[in-house]
Design goal:
- The structure is a single chain.
- The protein is an alpha+beta fold.
- It has a domain of 96 residues: Orthogonal Bundle (Helix Hairpins), CATH 1.10.287.4300.
- 52% of the residues lie in helices and 13% in strands.
- It contains five helices and six strands, in the order H-H-E-E-E-H-H-E-E-H-E.
- A three-stranded antiparallel β-sheet has the order 1-2-3, with no helix packed on it.
- Helix 3 runs antiparallel to helix 4 and helix 4 runs antiparallel to helix 5.
Amino acid sequence: MMRVPKSAAYFVLVVLLAAAVYMVYIADGVGQLLPVRQGGEMQEEQGNGEGEDVETIGQDPADWVPNGGKEFFVEYRLERERVRSQELDLLQQMVNNPNVTEESKKSAEARILELQALMETELLVENAIKAQGYENAILIVQQDGAIVIVDAPELSSAEIRLIAQIAAQSTGFRASQISISCQSSK
């Protein structure tokens, strides 16, 4: 039976915590990280006494309307980490539950390892793209390819090829399986 070492689980938790702290730092506080939007409309926050409009993050990233700001990248990362954390918690509960079959435990352990590898790949690709001079980048890995969203007003053909090559090296996909798009935060 394959077991996930506690040190690996702790490592993942530390990485997630460090990512959260970093996001709070770059957003100059939690208030800017967690705008409040419900149903796509602005809602007045209860009890703030100032009548300011506050937005909430929707539950489905497909419902988000990119507004061209840094918020898109921050919101996406926060939502991705929230969903991953929930999935990892559920998988860890399955592994630790004595009523779950050994086959299900093995499947849960394998999925935990897959998620850890995916998080490492996302971090590697996103940081490699940032190292090329872009302020933000997001990698979305799908079953048959990947999507890279870069913080840039536009990309040249050479830039697209470079980003596709960076993503292809880490994901194992061919460059033709990687879609590149730009989202300007300026």
